[in-house]
Amino acid sequence: xxxxxxxxxxxxxxxxxxxxxWSKAQIEKANTGKDIxxxxxxxxxxxxxxxxxxxxxxxxxxxxxxxxxxxEQYGDYLxxxxxxxxxxxxxxxxxxxxxxxxxxxxxxxxxxxxxEQGIAGTTGHTRIKCxxxxxxxxxCSYGMSTAKDIVLQLLIDDRVTSLGHRKxxxxxxxxxxxxxxxxHKVWGTCAVFDSN
Length: 196
What we know:
The protein is an alpha+beta fold.
């Protein structure tokens, strides 16, 4: 009887834990870049994670942000971050907005800049050889290697007083995105999100 009770508790724990994840339908709706053969897995997942936040802000808060205080590489650097707390507040009251769809021209623009910055080891938005006119808004992430960490870095926008990346990521005005992730000479990884 004790074994049966233990198994029941284990099953209930597993079921409730498993219930606290994204549904297949949510993933499908958010994963707008999944069929683009030349995107890397990380690039596809960046689009998906950002769209999950836009489409399902309260679920994103519950599933991805509530326990997120940093990553394996940098530790719990966000544990006491007021920027993380403000994102929690934003998502708790945010209305769902449209998913971003993949755009090939925006991708080419982002890929050019990710490569340019990666080789030069620079940060910011100053382009030397890459065109600028092809996008309305841009976010750049450095030093994060997983899609979830890249997207959360941009959404939390730790120590960016303007919250410029967060505002772009959660702006319903934008409907298209190009994402490129590549190596960076100084930070290891650079991700560029260009939107229209």
